[in-house]
């Protein structure tokens, strides 16, 4: 294995290329200590030491990230990928986080739904969870266990907008409708909420 290139990321870190493929990023001090120089051969012992350093760093990095908020497995993988960690290291760290219970997609979905179900439509929640790498099967299963009525959510949380829509001109009504549509509510649910308000079906 030959170190074919070293590309600076910033003043402290560089990307290391081995046999013309990106291996990882290292701090300048680590490169000096490990004898990492362009055109040098990379021994198996040095590679093993690099992976040991990277694993400890990636693990500590993930712990730090998780003190801020909960993450899905997909989100954490992307965080570590942006740090130029090798896939082998990422998988090892993710496995350890799951073993500790620090990452749990099912728990994440449950908490997310509990937090947002009374403010957002199921459709919007489904879209947001999907963007976080949650499987459609898991999302569908959790949402199907929730009997919240989207029209009732609109009525409870957005009654001011509904009242304005009843007595305004078409242009204003269209703008107000768009505000609710952007929150993921369907035209059908919005219309039903308006009818519920008119008939006092609270």
Describe how the helices and strands are arranged.
Elements (H helix, E strand, L loop, with lengths): L2 E6 L4 E6 L2 E7 H7 L9 H23 L6 H9 L5 H14 L4 H12 L5 H10 L4 H9 L5 H8 L1 H8 L3 H13 L4 H12 L4
Antiparallel strand pairs: 1-2, 2-3
How would you describe this structure to a colleague?
The chain is mostly helical and 202 residues long. The protein has eleven helices and three strands, in the order βββααααααααααα. A three-stranded antiparallel sheet has the order 1-2-3. Helix 8 (150-157) packs across helix 11 and helix 9 packs across helix 11. It starts with a strand and ends with a helix.
Quick overview:
This protein has 202 residues and is mainly alpha-helical. The chain has helices at residues 28-34, 44-66, 73-81, 87-100, 105-116, 122-131, 136-144, 150-157, 159-166, 170-182, 187-198, and strands at 3-8, 13-18, 21-27. A three-stranded antiparallel beta sheet has the order 1-2-3.
Keywords for this entry:
202 residues, 9% strand, 62% helix, single chain, mainly alpha, 3 strands, Arc Repressor Mutant, subunit A, 3 domains, elongated
Unreliably modeled segments: none
Q: What would CATH call the architecture of the largest domain? A: Orthogonal Bundle
The CATH topology of the largest domain is given as Arc Repressor Mutant, subunit A
**Percentage beta strand:** 5-15%
Distance between the termini: 71 Å
Sequence of strands across the biggest β-sheet: 1-2-3
H and E order:
EEEHHHHHHHHHHH
Radius of gyration (CA) equals 25 Å
How many distinct folded domains? 3
CATH class of the largest domain: Mainly Alpha
The averaged pLDDT comes out at: 87
* Share of residues in helices: 55-70%
What summary fits the major beta sheet? Answer: 3 strands, antiparallel
**What coarse outline follows from CA principal-axis ratios?**
elongated
